[in-house]
Structures are given as C-alpha cells and as structure tokens.
Amino acid sequence: MKRGFFDGFVFVVSSDVPEDVRSLICICGGVVSGLMKASTTHGLVVGRSQEDLPCAAELRGLRLPILRTSWVRACVAASRLLPMKGSHVVYDPYLFEGLRFTTTLLPRNLKEQFAALIVFLGGSYSPQLTTWTDVVLVGVRSFKQKEKDDPTAADGVRRRDLSMPAGCSAKWEEALKRSVPCVDVEWFETCITTGRLQPLSFCS
Prior knowledge:
Elements: E1 10-13, H1 19-27, E2 31-33, E3 42-45, H2 56-61, E4 66-68, H3 69-78, E5 89-91, E6 100-104, H4 108-120, E7 124-125, E8 135-138, H5 143-149, H6 151-158, H7 170-177, E9 182-183, H8 185-194
Helix pairs in contact: 5-6
C-alpha cells in the first residue's frame, strides 16, 4: 500500500464511519476528527445523505467536499488518489467543473442568477452558443411537463430530425442541430440538490 497519499487531508467524519476506514485514512497520512476544525478539508459519510454529518451545512458554506467512505476504500485499493466525482461524492463544490454553459428562454434576472450559480460551482458561462458550448440550459421547468402540455415539444427535443419544439428559440434550435445537450431547470436543480452531476441525456 502506498502511504502518504492522504497527506494534508483532514476529514470530519460521521459517527457511523467504520473503524477500518478511519485507520486506512491515518495509515495513508490523513487525519480523522469527529468535530469540525479550522484545518478540515473534507467531510466523510457512509451513505448518500449529507444529513448524516451534523456539520454538513458548514462544510457546504466553506465549499468543502463531502465524500463517501467508498472513495477512501477505492483510493486505497488503487494505491492513489482518485477523482472526487460520481457515486463517491455526496457534495461537490465544483459540480460543473469543465462544463461550458449557455442559456436560452430565461428572463434576464433568472439568467444572471443561473450564470452566477454555474460559475460558483466551477463551470463557465457564455451568453452565446459557441463551438465550445457543452450544455444549453433551457428556461423550461421540465421537458416532461412540457410534453404533457404540448406533445410536440419534448418530441422535438428528443428527435432532432423532426420539427422543433413550440416556442423554440433560435439558440435552442441551433443547439439541437449541433447535438449539444439541452437541459431543463429540473435537471439543474437535481444536480444541485443531489450534489452530483446528472447524465446529460437526462433531458435532451
């Protein structure tokens, strides 16, 4: 086992974190604490709920990741630090890292709020659709609800060779032609609520 790859890591852990996981962290150079400290770098829980950790809100406020014990075990098994992404993460302060967003069909005040959230969570935002755009956030509460209200809408989102959704903006239409993933507000909120990036096929 490669020792020391948790050097500099100070984990505040929930009470149900097993002793063997605590020992693995210490053996690999990390520090374990049951209380929040100024030096704390990560939170650690067993399950998927942030509520298992009493200081979860404080960790989120400081933008510190909350991980599952499965991440520690996986790192030890691989003898190296693994990405803090996917199912190992309960709260990711850089949820949208590496993703380039634009928006359409959003009122100006909401557009500014979403843009600020995207940047806060590690993504980048441009008001224009560019060749580098990864995701288009559409100002629709839910594509599923829109499908109920207007059956042609979601059909147009999913089957790009057919007519565009009713009320589709030029930017949205161009994104669909380029096969750029288009997501709704529900997708965005689900990412934030769960602390995990949802599949980009969730909506488009």
